[in-house]
Amino acid sequence: MEYGDITELAANIKKLGLLSPILARPIGERYEIVHGHRRFMAFKHLKSKYVPGVVKELTDKQALIIHGSENIQREEFSPIETARYYKLCRKFFSVKEIAKEAGKGETHVKYHLYLVNLPDDIQTKIHIGEISYGKARELARLAIETTVTAVTIKKGGSRGPKPASPTTQYFDEIRILSSDKDLRDAPSIAKAAKLVKGGVEVEDAVDEARKDYAKRMSKKRSEREALPPEEIARN
């Protein structure tokens, strides 16, 4: 787990004290921190022998929910960390249950789960902020096999579409799209990805997406120039 720079947090704790104790649970003769890892590291930075905390008996499921949901609410996770947390939760919960516990929409959870199907090097770029979440989400669509090639038998005998599953079919294309600096926003990536899935060569798809981006920017400039001065000031 990465904790980032904890020097500022340590300075605040030294000045004001710990406003919120860490939460831990007993594991055998030891304790596992469930929430408050950065605060714990800040106390280590201050070379303190003691850390104010609360010890509570928690199941694995309860600990997982608490650890992840609070970090997500405080936006302390990167999109990839959030995605990996949701993937862990899928061992115990449905997408609907995860969304409820995290205080997010089901679509939010599904889109993040798509990210863990991307190549590891692309996930790293997303984690460190080289690729925005919006772009990452569109790239992830290429890492999901959405073509319905079979059906599943649901309870009661009814038939339903086969769930989307990971595929490595487009990993080379994903790397090309993620590194092209002319694909400047999520709609550009979405345009190129859709063309690639439709059978268009990736170079041609990128070229079409660039043209589409230029048209959209030109339209925005024209619309902005047509606005009265007071409207431009508001925007």
From TrEMBL:
SMART domains given for it? ParB
Q: Provide a Gene Ontology MF annotation, just one.
A: DNA binding
Entry's Gene Ontology cellular component terms = chromosome
Q: Where are the transmembrane segments?
A: none
Q: Where is this region: Disordered?
A: 212-235
- What Gene Ontology biological process does one annotation of this record name? chromosome segregation
The record's section on InterPro entries has: Chromosome_partition/occlusion, HTH_ParB/Spo0J, ParB/RepB/Spo0J, ParB/Sulfiredoxin_sf, ParB_N
**Keyword entries, A-Z:** Chromosome partition
Residue intervals of the ParB-like N-terminal domain: 1-72
Q: SUPFAM superfamilies annotated for this entry?
A: ParB/Sulfiredoxin
Q: Does the keyword Disulfide bond apply?
A: no
The cross-references to PANTHER family, in alphabetical order and at most eight, read: CHROMOSOME-PARTITIONING PROTEIN PARB-RELATED
NCBIfam families in the cross-refs: parB_part (TIGR00180)
What is the name listed in the Swiss-Prot or TrEMBL entry for this protein?
ParB-like N-terminal domain-containing protein
Give the originating organism: marine sediment metagenome
